[in-house]
Design a protein that fits this description.
The protein is an alpha+beta fold. It is built from ten helices and 13 strands. Bound molecules: alpha-D-galactopyranose.
């Protein structure tokens, strides 16, 4: 049984998915693929790491096996019995590049295990199980965007998801002579999961201090009473939510110039207010800014490294990136990796798990 699940790029709406906000991701044509077969024990092989590891149910090792065994744990918690299996994991999705390889591994594993055990599952429940695996087993208190995208994404579309109501709609991606390009900084700061969890706690503190249940009840006026750091965090979340809606308008009107401006604005907000960027990423965005053919750029994903998403005109992109790589290597002693990606389907469409009706926002 082979199943693949895609990585994702979030066009805009970063660190909003655990704050009842909006996100606008699409799935990319890079995947984690798993192959499973029934076995006597749980045995997991990663082609990337060149390792085969035997694990017990509920055994947490603090490495890549946790994503799979977390899914086993969450499936059983949800009442699905899981018998031992052998799994081989292969991937065309770089890890640590902010493209959500962990969610892709969780979703591919969950679908493959369910198919192997002959269980059927509702796609929304599938998302919840994978999120639970990551939050409660792996220990990163992620939002819902990555797993939702790996399941619900549709080729040639982004998903506008309201993480408060869980309603979503597909927004066509008509980029004319432009494309989204990813520039992997090849940096993954150790801080990322602890700082990610800290940002979440800061957001919870904001709600408590303002005595609100949701960021959707908070306005710019309310946040002036907060101490400076919390005020910055809140300002980012409020501004970023607005930017998602403005980005959808810009894309619908085919105004890619404006779409690019929102990417730059989002980056500045993530760098200065939410403080989840880093020097290497800021250098890449700074290099691109204002260059002919580059409409916008920003950090994507959880932050502290990973990739930059740039909206560029197709014909000139190659030229810029060679120069960028030279400068980057001089400064940081490592190379960038440029990924030209296309949108693709999530497992709902590619693996034909049971269909659902989408509810618009
Ligand atoms: C990570 C998390 C997501 C989301 C982003 C930031 O990718 O897994 O849920 O919070 O960071 O937008």
């Amino acid at each position: 049984m082979r199943v693949k699940a895609p990585g994702r790029v979030n066009i805009i709406g970063e660190h909003t998915d655990y704050n009842d906000g909006f996100v606008l991701p699409f799935a990319i044509d890079r995947y984690v693929e798993v192959e499973v077969r029934a076995s006597k024990d749980f045995s997991l092989t990663s082609k990337l790491f060149g390792q085969t590891i035997k694990v017990e149910k509920n055994e947490k090792r603090g490495d890549w096996t946790d994503y799979v065994m977390g899914v086993v744990w969450a499936l059983e918690e949800a009442g699905y019995k899981v018998e031992p299996f052998e799994m081989t994991i292969d991937s065309t999705l770089p890890t640590g590049a902010g493209l959500s390889s962990s969610a892709a591994l969780e979703v591919a594993s969950a679908v493959a295990i369910m198919k192997l055990m002959n269980h059927s599952i509702d796609p929304r429940e599938l998302v919840q199980i994978c999120v639970r695996a990551e939050r409660e087993f792996v220990g990163v208190r992620c939002g819902i965007m990555d797993q939702f995208t790996a399941v619900f994404a549709k080729k040639d579309h982004a998903i506008l998801l309201d993480t408060m109501t869980m309603n979503y709609e597909y927004v066509p991606l008509n980029l004319n002579n432009c494309e989204f390009v990813l520039i992997d900084s090849n940096v993954k700061h150790e801080l990322s999961s602890s700082e990610y969890n800290r940002r979440r706690m800061e957001c919870e503190t904001i709600l408590k201090k303002l005595n609100k249940r949701s960021f959707r009840e908070i306005s710019e006026k309310d946040i002036s009473v907060l101490e400076p750091t919390l005020r910055k965090r809140a300002k980012h979340v409020l501004g970023e939510n607005q930017r998602v809606l403005k980005m959808v308008e810009a894309l619908r009107k085919n105004n890619l110039f404006l779409a690019g401006c929102f990417l730059y604005e989002s980056h500045a907000s993530l760098r200065d207010l939410y403080e989840v960027s880093c020097d290497e990423i800021d250098f890449i965005v700074g290099f691109l800014k204002g260059r002919t053919g580059v409409l916008g750029a920003r950090i994507v994903g959880g932050g502290f490294g990973g990739s930059v998403l740039a909206l560029v005109r197709k014909n000139i992109s190659q030229l810029n990136f060679e120069e960028l790589d030279r400068e980057y290597r001089k400064l940081y002693g490592r190379s960038i990796r440029v990924l030209h990606v296309n949108s693709d389907d999530g497992v709902l469409f590619s693996q034909l798990i049971s269909p659902v009706s989408s509810s618009g926002i």
